[in-house]
Design goal:
about 35% helix; eight-stranded mixed beta sheet; four-stranded antiparallel beta sheet; single chain; globular; alpha+beta; Glutamine Phosphoribosylpyrophosphate, subunit 1, domain 1
Length: about 300
C-alpha cells in the first residue's frame, strides 16, 4: 500500500544562548536546516528510499560547520575530532554504527556501510578507523574539521577543566533525520561530534540502537539529541517503540512520555524526532529549543528553533 512520504531533521536541542544566536546567525541555521531537508525530500519525491533520504539529509548537515557533526564536530580533550553515527533501517532493524572515528567526512555513510558490508552493528575506535580506510569512504585532513568557534570553545573548556555539551550554554548539536517513503518504509540516521573536551573515548547515545537511534517499519523511526548519558540510561528511542507496541500509545503520546517523563524528572534534557507508519512527523523536546525542520504528509515545509 502506498504511503505519503514525510521527513524530519534536527540539528540539536538544548538552551541556546540568545546573545550568541543573533538574528543573522539564526537565519544561517534555518537556511542550513531547510537545505538539508530539501535534499532528503528530493530523494523521496524521486521515489527513493527512506534509507537514502535520511543519509543524504544527514550528510548535508555533516558538511555544515554550524552543527556538531562531521565538519562542525567539537574538539575532544586531546584537541582532535572523534565522531559517532548510526544508521537504522526499519526493514528487519538493519542497523550499523560507528564510534570514535576520525577524518571521516561523512560518518553516517560509514555507519551505513557497517550495516551493509559487515555482520556487526557497532564498530568503535581503531577497528572502525581501519574499516573506514578499507571501505573507501572519503577521508579529510584535520584542517577540514577545524572551526575557530569550536576551537575557542575547547580552549575555554580546557582552561576551566570542564566537559561541555557542544556549547557552554546547554546546546547539543547532534544531527539526525527520520523519514517514511512512499512504500511505508521507515529509516533513521544520527551523527555527532560528542562533547567538547570529552575524555577517555567517551561514547554517547547516538550510535547505540535503542538509545539515540531506532527504526522498525511496524512501529517508528527515531533520532534523538540531548545529554547522551541520560538517553542511554533511559533507552529513550526504544522507550517510544515499547510504548507503541505494548501500551498502544500513539507515536505522539509515546514520544512526549519518553522526553517529558522520568528522563526529564531526572535532569535529562533534549529531544527527538520521529515518524511512524502513518501520520505526520512528531518532534518534541523538554528544553528551550531544538533546531528542526520537517515536511508533513501534505508536503508543507516547516523550520524552527524555539
Amino acid at each position: 500500500m502506498k504511503a505519503n512520504p514525510v521527513i524530519a531533521i534536527h540539528g540539536g536541542a538544548g538552551t541556546p544562548d540568545r546573545t550568541l544566536l543573533t538574528p543573522e546567525r539564526e537565519v544561517l541555521y534555518l537556511q542550513a536546516l531547510q537545505e538539508a531537508l530539501r535534499i532528503g525530500w528530493d530523494v523521496l519525491q524521486r521515489g527513493g528510499s527512506a534509507d537514502d533520504a535520511v543519509v543524504e539529509a544527514v550528510k548535508s548537515l555533516e558538511d555544515c560547520p554550524l552543527f556538531n557533526a562531521g565538519r562542525g564536530s567539537v574538539f575532544n580533550h586531546e584537541g582532535i575530532h572523534e565522531m559517532d553515527a548510526c544508521f537504522a533501517s526499519g526493514k528487519g532493524r538493519l542497523t550499523g554504527a560507528v564510534a570514535g572515528v576520525r577524518n571521516v567526512r561523512h560518518p553516517i555513510e560509514l555507519a551505513r556501510l557497517v550495516a551493509l558490508r559487515t555482520p556487526h552493528v557497532l564498530l568503535a575506535g581503531t577497528g572502525a578507523q581501519k574499516f573506514a580506510e578499507e571501505s573507501g569512504v572519503e577521508l579529510m585532513p584535520e584542517e577540514w574539521f577545524y572551526d575557530e568557534y569550536r576551537y575557542r570553545q575547547w580552549q575555554e573548556a580546557r582552561s576551566q577543566q570542564e566537559i561541555w555539551l557542544d556549547h557552554g550554554e546547554k546546546k547539543w548539536g547532534t544531527v539526525g533525520a527520520v523519514a517514511r517513503d512512499r512504500f511505508g518504509h521507515l529509516a533513521a540516521a544520527t551523527s555527532t561530534g560528542g562533547m567538547t573536551n570529552k575524555k577517555y573515548g567517551r561514547v554517547g547515545d547516538t550510535p547505540i540502537f535503542g538509545a539515540g537511534t531506532f527504526a522498525d517499519d511496524a512501529l517508528c523511526a527515531i533520532s534523538c539529541t540531548g545529554h547522551g548519558e541520560f538517553f542511554i540510561r533511559y533507552c529513550v528511542a526504544h522507550e517510544v517503540a515499547a510504548q507503541i507496541r505494548w501500551a498502544g500509545r500513539s507515536l505522539a503520546q509515546a514520544a512526549w512520555n519518553a522526553i517529558h517523563g522520568p528522563l526529564c524528572l531526572d535532569g535529562g534534557e533534549g529531544g527527538l524526532i520521529a515518524v511512524g507508519p502513518s501520520g505526520d512527523p512528531v518532534l518534541t523536546f523538554n528544553c528551550a529549543g531544538m533546531f528542526r525542520a520537517w515536511i508533513t504528509e501534505n508536503g508543507q515545509m516547516h523550520a524552527a528553533i524555539f
